[in-house]
From TrEMBL:
Residues 51-148 form the Methyltransferase domain. Pfam families: Methyltransf_25. PANTHER family: METHYLTRANSFERASE. The keyword Membrane does not apply. The gene is menG_1. The keyword Transcription regulation does not apply. One of its GO terms (biological process) is methylation. GO terms for molecular function: methyltransferase activity. This is Demethylmenaquinone methyltransferase. It comes from Desulfosarcina ovata subsp. ovata. Keywords: Methyltransferase, Transferase. InterPro entries: Methyltransf_25, Methyltransf_Superfamily, SAM-dependent_MTases_sf.
Amino acid sequence: MELQSVSTRGRTLDHAARVYDLLEPLLLLGKQAEYDLHLLSLLNVSASDRVLDLGCGTGVLTRMIADRLNPAEGGESVGIDAAARMVAVARKKRASENCRFEVMAAEALGFADATFDAVVSSLFFHHVPLDLKESALTEAFRVLKPGGRLVIADMHIPTTRMGALVSHVSRWFFMQPQIGENIRGVLPRVIEAAGFAPPSIVAVYFGYIALFNTRKPNA
């Protein structure tokens, strides 16, 4: 049965599913491997961890996480995306015994409370409006275990002239006010408002993509 995208007011990339694996390395200027490995190091997964990837796209990062987990110990990596075509590509190319993909909106997660040890998101939050950023982070907080890790890489206040140029051109070229929210710096406040510890910015790529690292406080 053909997968169906779920309704969301966020921007989905069904139209780009067939070429996304070709475009993403170009958009990351050849630094995708370095960037993904940095995210993995911040997640610091254990073999038995369960990890959720919000807005997983075609599942490159989700599968890299899964390859560091042990299914025999319960380790599992789950990617969710509202775009059914993205999930179809991810399932075809990257699903495995402990790596699965579901069509699901980040603001309405179909998982029980405290299911995951870590939640990660790469370049997702600049596609959704502010209220959905808030809802998605509230849901991430709910499905994380106490002490669970949250790592987000996304557009933030530019730190270089080139970063500012790319950010502002992207906001107006794609007519995407959600990018404007990110480059005004809303993410740290929204992350903290969802209940997480104040996030630290551990790196900035290309002058406009920040890596945020935080945790759900222990109960």
